What we know:
This protein has 241 residues and is α/β, with parallel strands linked by helices. It has 2 domains: 9-125, Rossmann fold (3-Layer(aba) Sandwich); 135-240, Arc Repressor Mutant, subunit A (Orthogonal Bundle), CATH 1.10.10.10. It has 10 helices and 12 strands. The strands form 3 sheets. It has a 5-stranded parallel β-sheet, sandwiched between helices. The longest helix is centred in the middle third of the chain and has 23 residues, at 111-133. It is elongated. The site of calcium ion has 5 residues, from loops.
Amino acid sequence: MDMGADSRRILLVEDEKAISDAVAAYLKRENYWVTAAYDGQQAIDEFEMHNFDLVILDLMLPKVPGEKVCRVIRDKSEVPIIMLTAKGEVEDRTIGLELGADDYLVKPFSPRELVARVRALLRRAHADAEPQREVLTYGDLTIDLSGHRVFVKGEEIDLTASEFKLLTTLSRYPGRVCTRMELVEKVLGYDFEGYERTIDSHIKNLRAKLGDDPKHPTWLYTVHGVGYRFEDPTAHSTQKK
Ligand code: CA
């Protein structure tokens, strides 16, 4: 399995808890990161706070309807959107597509079908976005994603596959706290419950190789009792948003 292509973040907007839970379970099993929102307002709030690679959006939602959520998202972003509609909810199935969604599924749908659509959309979106995603720069740290190479101040750093995966997982969303368990799932595979300590040793090695002082970190911050957080040192000085 291509781990790199699977560590995508999905916003799942669905007010029916049973459906949301089932879909989330399927997506997580496929290695996606899932954030669930249960009404339209929560969906907009989550979307404004975090970066997502794809949005699964139910049409009929409490507080703010799906159509409105779709417009709000589309005003700001080209993120792929899959619309969920109940049978008979829309006369013309293309309405979701007219709102700017990329695909739609009519309930009841099989979670497998949804996961297949998610994968296809992400593959398409990734192919379009590939050129600007290949190299990430965070101050003196440069991560060449496609080349699997890491540089600090222009000097190449030799990382193990797990350390590289850990670094790319954390640096993908600067400022976001990743729990140890999340990191275990992403870096070691999702079966490894109770292996949180190995993440601590990987972090320790990673810090040593990057020359990142845990007492005065540039990139890797410990969030006590929770996990770790990556910071982009250039983001704070410029404060662009
Ligand atoms: Ca609904």
